[in-house]
Amino acid sequence: MDSVTGKHRAAGPAGAAARAVGLFKQYGEGETAVTALDHVDVEFARNQFTAIMGPSGSGKSTLMHCMAGLDSATSGSAYIGDTDLSGLRDKEMTALRRDRLGFIFQSFNLVPTLTAAENITLPSDIAGAKVDQEWFEEITSRLGLTNRLTHRPAELSGGQQQRVACARALVSRPEIIFGDEPTGNLDSNSSREVLDILRTAVDQDDQTVVIVTHDAKAASYADRVVFLADGRLINEILDPTIDEILATMAGIES
Ligand SMILES: Nc1ncnc2c1ncn2[C@@H]1O[C@H](COP(=O)(O)OP(=O)(O)O)[C@@H](O)[C@H]1O
Ligand SMILES: [Mg+2]
């Protein structure tokens, strides 16, 4: 046990699965320029579940997208492990995203013409990597998808589609899994299932998970909640309770 966080491993450059250093992101130029990230420094420790919260427009998606190599910062650095994303060429970035990261989006982002099983193995198939069959079976069984693997997304409920997206993110055992409001389109039962899966991935499989959420209940599954406002990191809570999260959010929004 770590005395600072109360759980898991301590954060530190050597132990960080991902980190931002002076991350600055501006959209547009001149008078209409918007500062989405105002020099953010943050570390996401390995084997931790972190939730990012903050008011709408506070920079949550921008932070996640810059840290996951889906968008590039104006200045500053984003690291996955020891790899500085700003130093990568397009091809290297594509390979890094494919081999080292998992993504879960609010809108599931499944390929409609492929079955659930094909969607889950698609990134590995594109990479020409072999899927660990035993792990595939373990993950899909844990997610309650065993009898749904031949179905296409349109034949699945929203909750089932998001569980397929979770399986797709987990099957290659990436270094870190990012989710931008992964439960944003789900009812409370399906949300709970997805959050339980992510919690288990951290507790049982030594995964690292970072999600953006505006839901205090979802954030309470995390080991740590960091709060953004106006593109700045302004607060954090370790081992958060729903009440602590709600109180902090109320303080930010008032
Ligand atoms: N593509 C874009 N072009 C211009 N402004 C953007 C773009 N994306 C985001 N922004 C602005 O950047 C700020 C942060 O946005 P975002 O990261 O999406 O916030 P959040 O996810 O917390 O709601 C907001 O002011 C938003 O309007
Ligand atoms: Mg957002």
From TrEMBL:
Start and end residues of each ABC transporter domain: 18-254
Keyword annotations: ATP-binding, Nucleotide-binding, Transport
UniProt-recorded Gene Ontology molecular function terms: ATP binding
UniProt xrefs under SUPFAM superfamilies: P-loop containing nucleoside triphosphate hydrolases
PANTHER family in UniProt: ABC TRANSPORTER RELATED, IMPORT ATP-BINDING PROTEIN
Designated name of the protein: ABC transporter ATP-binding protein
